[in-house]
Specification:
The structure holds 2 protein chains of 2 kinds.
Chain A: E1 3-12, E2 15-25, E3 30-35, H1 38-45, E4 53-58, E5 61-62, H2 68-74, E6 75-78, H3 91-101, H4 109-119, H5 136-149, E7 154-158, H6 166-181, E8 186-190, H7 194-200, E9 203-208, E10 211-217, H8 218-223, H9 225-230, H10 237-247, H11 258-268
Parallel strand pairs in A: 3-8, 3-9, 6-7, 7-8
Antiparallel strand pairs in A: 1-2, 1-4, 4-5, 9-10
Chain B: E1 3-14, E2 17-28, E3 32-36, H1 43-50, E4 60-62, E5 65-66, H2 72-78, E6 79-82, H3 95-105, H4 110-124, H5 139-152, E7 157-161, H6 169-186, E8 189-194, E9 205-210, E10 213-218, H7 220-223, H8 227-232, H9 239-249, H10 260-267
Parallel strand pairs in B: 3-8, 3-9, 6-7, 7-8
Antiparallel strand pairs in B: 1-2, 1-4, 4-5, 9-10
Chain lengths: ~270, ~270
Amino acid sequence: MEIIFKNVGYRYKNRKILEKVNLKIRNNMITGITGDNKTLLIELINSITFPSYGEIKIGNQEINDDNLIELRRTVCLIRQNPEEQFFTATVKEEMEFLVGRLNYKSRNIIKKMKDSLQIVGLNEKYLEKDIFKLSTGEQKLIQVAISLLYNPNIVIFDEPFVELDYTNKKKLIKLIKLLKERYHKTVIIASNDSNILYELTDDLVVIKKTRIIAADETEKIYQDVDFLVYNDIEIPDLIAFTAKAREKNVKLSFHKDIRDLIKDVYKHV
Amino acid sequence: MSKILEINNLTFSYPEKPLFHGLSLEIEEGKYITIIGNNKSGKTTLMKLICGILNSKDSIVAGYAYVNHARIHDNSRFFGVVFSGVDNKFLFDNVYKEMAFPLENLNIPVPKIEEKILEIAKEFGITKFLDRKIENLTNSEKQELLIAIALLHEPKVLLLDNAFSMMNKKTKQKIQKILNERIERDKLTVILTTTNLNEIISSDYTYVLNNGEIIMEGKPGSVLREEKILNRIGLELPFMIDLSLKLEFYELLDDEITDMDRMVDTLWK
């Protein structure tokens, strides 16, 4: 689903937190959000927090009292610390709780649960496991599995890669790509990890203090090195290397994979 | 050099899950030690055992005394501890009050407390934070504040459990510099656990922990050359090391270079 912000602002006790946000998040794309006040922007999309002025449209619908519940169900928010979002002891109970809230028919529900676990790459043994004893990486996967039960259109991750090790990072990256490509979800990732954002996202939104200073295709933003330096945004390593080489008048191109970069270096040495 | 911390034949397990069986290591005073491992390697448990939150059954010697529950007061003066994450870490809503609290607990007179806080705020360059609300700080600033608080009572050993995970690059460099100064000046010993191999480069000695066992140890430079072992236990090589190793493989470089400027200068004179 497409998300549109029209002249949106948020103020807290007269302090300006977000000002004049005009933004279009494309359907079925992975969008990265980086910079300040990321979590607030996400909460506005999930209508947990409401803007002080302006309007937010989610898939052509403006948020109002009548469609609030429905719109919240189209959005799944996975917080940085997934423990905050769990109520019950086991994965199965957690899933049953949600199913109960949604008035699903109980037939086939166990199969649905197993299927959604399979999608995130966990086996059915996890149904009986104590949710609080799982590692943070697994908890994040479980959170996605749970959300797949109610089939949201938009999946948002808040700082998903913090504190994950390499294996779990790779798993999550794979899952995010799968969500986009096979399940046609709109994925939003709030993160400050420029390397992963560069590798993974299609579009990028950069917030500096209260304003959005850039919203465009990820490659375009990250390849504008002067802009990144001026605004104090982390430069992805692959870009930084090419930029350094270009300063020496070596005609390297920008690459997304280290192997391509090495091939290019080989040609120019 | 004198030993500041000694772990002898440490055995510890959670119910249903054995972790350490006979772990031993020695740490010298005034060193910067890093412990690297994946999400389930037992890093946090080791930190909790070292500072006495979990009972180590008299197998850890800090300074000249055993770490155990009977000496909890001595332990808390000896160690400064920062655990991972930034949630549920703060007691007050105001930065100054939060910083004053641990010192008040040590019965330090009020004028002295103020002096100390201003001193450390100046060292960290966070004087402008002091009257701000904690909830208005970014995650990076919160982690910075947590480290400043842990250093307030001038501990002998600073334990940082993944404490740089949400910091931006600039802050990380600043904190590294402050820690190095303190290591030089006050013979502070720093033990940092992390999943990010970038963070071990500047340390004196590195232990690689996997499933409660030290599988490798040495200077960071030599540990980082073991790409296969690191990948197998789920750790990602930093970009510059990865690039340098690959360029060496293709005989484009003679030596390992981890500094980007120097590498570009060497490749294209």
